[in-house]
Amino acid sequence: MSKLVLNLAKPGEQAPKLQLNLSKGEAFTAKLSWDGETDLDLHAIVCVNAGDGAKAQSLEDILSTYNVRRKIGGQEVGVLDKQADGSFQVHGGALRHSPDALDGALDGVDEWIRVDPSKLPSVSSGVLEIPLVAMIHTQAAAKRFGQVQNAEIAIVNASGAELMRASLSNQFGDFIGVQMGSIMIEAGGKANFVAVGVGFNGDFNSVLGHFS
C-alpha cells in the first residue's frame, strides 16, 4: 500500500518557487608563469591511491605535452589529440591543459591546467589523486629554476581563492622540477588540494616511474 500524501498548501498561498542548486562543485586551476626563452611545462597525472601510493593506470591518465600525439623520427608517439585551439585534455575534459607555451612571452599566465573532479569516474577503493608537476623542458634541463626569470606557480579553486603560491625561481632554484601538490578526490566526490612542495632533478619519466 502506498503512503498517503497531502498537499500542504492552504488556499491563497503561493506554491513554492522552483530553485536550482547554483554550486558548480569544487574545481582547481594550476597557473604557471615565467619570463624569458626557457621552456617550462605543467603536467598532471590521474592516479588511484589505494593506500600504497598514487599510481596511474594508463597513458590516457597522463596530461603532459610529452603525451600529445606527434611524429618523431617517422614514428608516432603520444596518445592525446590537440584541440583546435592547441589545448589538450584527458578523461573527457576533466583535466584540460592550455596550449603549450615554448617560452614565457605571454603577459601573465603562460600555461595552465584546469581540473574538474566532478567529471572523473569514482573508484571502487581508495581515492583519486592528481599530482601537479612543474618542470623545465628536458631540452633545457641543464638549467635550474634559479636561472629562469620570475618563474611562479599558483593554485586557485573554483571561486578564485588562492590555495598556494610559490616562486620557483627562489624557493626551488636548485631544481628542474617540483611537485606543487596533489588534488585528492574522495569516494563521495569531495575534493581538496594538498600542498607538497617537493623539488627534484630527474626528467619527467622519472616522475612517471614514481607514479606508475
TrEMBL record:
UniProt superkingdom: Bacteria
Classification via InterPro entries: Stress/Tellurium_Resist, TerD
Keyword match 4Fe-4S: no
The keyword Lipid metabolism appears for this protein: no
Q: Which UniProt keywords apply?
A: Tellurium resistance
Domain TerD, chain residue ranges per copy: 92-211
| Protein's recorded name | TerD domain-containing protein
What organism is this sequence from?
Answer: Ideonella azotifigens
